[in-house]
Amino acid sequence: VLKGRGDLNPFKREVRAAAQLQHPNIVTAYDAAQAKGVYFLVMEYVPGPSLQELVKRQGPLPVGVASALMRQTAEALQHAFATEDRYWCVQLVARCVPVWLRTGEFPEVLQWTSRLDTAEIMNCAAVRDAHLMSLIFSRQFERARTELLIAKLEAPQSRALPALQLMLDIMTDAGVHVTAHQVEALSVTDDPYLTANLFNVSAYQLLVDKKFDAARRLALRGRELLAGTQHVYALAQAAVVLMLVDRAEGHAREAAETCMQLYARARAGRRNPIWVTAATAAASVHYHHNRLQLAE
Q1: Confidence at residue 137, expressed as pLDDT on a 0 to 100 scale
Q2: Where are the beta strands (DSSP E) in the chain?
Q3: pLDDT per residue as tens digits for the range 172-191
Q4: CA distances from 81 to 35, 84, 241 (A)
Q5: Residue 46: left (phi > 0), alpha (psi -120 to 50), or beta?
Q6: What is the 3-state secondary structure (H, E, C) of 134-160?
Q7: Which among 12, 152, 253, 276 is least buried, having the fewest CB atoms inside 10 angstroms?
Q8: Rounded to whole angstroms, how far apart are CA atoms 215 and 247?
């Protein structure tokens, strides 16, 4: 729905692109019209909950179900890219990246941004920031450094880029030492997911620097930012930081409980970065208690 007499071109592009798409995994567009100054697109009614509602209700999905849904999404995107409407392709990726980022599916983000050229990535903030974050967390550091420089030239006023730069510097051991106040000053108000990941990465650095209170403060703040959301990857990373702080301060029991709770939530899910983080944390608890068979 579009109200008023604003720029109708994006709406018209979406209507044209949607009209070309006929695929079992894409909602069909039937009509487009306007009434009393309101432009609207009439689309197929699909009964049942959305994926977000399903995950919220049931928690992590079984491996088979999650894999089938990811395959259906990829098939739909593949079909949509065949329209060759480049604006529409960028918009499709922009709509999908939040879903992939929630569960740490960074290779999936990079798979689809690889189908866009540099200008298309840099001209859409949502795609650009997701792409850069995915490069960093996939440890493609040289490429991330190069493309961050390009992004700074294209969008010098972006609040996200200094946060991404700090994350890159910390993860590449660039000799960065931060305080909680410095990190909080880089918060991106309209992107709690990016901010929470910034807090998590910085909390790890503070933990290495033995600034346990500051590390705990940032991890807790990141967790609060995402409370009630489905951003399970960043929430899992915050839980691991808190576990490491507890262990460093001698609170072994609390640390172990955090690890096992994290693993209990993730164990039935897809073998993605969350599962790896949770399984590694649980294995460390079993190893610490000499339960070697369970650890393996």
Answers
A1: 93
A2: 2-3, 29-35, 38-43
A3: 988 889 999 999 999 999 99
A4: 31, 6, 39
A5: beta
A6: HHHHCCCHHHHHHHHHHHHHHCCCCCH
A7: 253
A8: 13
CA angle in degrees (0–180, nearest 5) for 95-100-102: 105
Query: pLDDT-based confidence at 170, cuts 50/70/90?
Result: very high
Residue range 28-48: mean pLDDT, rounded: 77
Q: Which own/partner pairs from 94-100 qualify as long-range (CB within 8 Å, at least 24 positions apart)? A: 94/124, 94/126, 94/127, 97/126, 97/127, 97/130, 98/126, 98/130, 98/193, 99/51, 99/73, 100/130
* Helix (H) / strand (E) containing 204: helix 192-208
Q: What is the dihedral of CA 251, 256, 262, 265, to 10 degrees?
A: -140
Alpha-carbon torsion, ordered 110, 111, 112, 116, to 10 deg? 80
Rounded CA separation 53/57 (Å): 6
Pairing of strands 29-35, 2-3: unpaired
CA distance 251 to 202: 22
Token pair in block for residue 119 = 């200008």
The DSSP code for 52 is: H
For residues 126 and 122, give the distance between their C-alpha atoms in angstroms, rounded to a whole number.
9
Integer-rounded Cα radius of gyration of the chain: 21
Contacts with 291 (C-beta within 8 Å, 6 or more apart), sequence order = none
CB atoms within 10 A of CB 198: 27
* Distance in angstroms (rounded) separating the CA atoms of residues 96 and 177: 34
The residue among 183, 256, 258, 177 whose CA lies nearest residue 221 is 183
State the DSSP H helix or E strand holding residue 66, giving kind and residue range, or none if neither.
helix 63-81
Q: Which of 170, 174, 121 is nearest to 148 (CA)?
A: 121
* pLDDT at position 76: 74
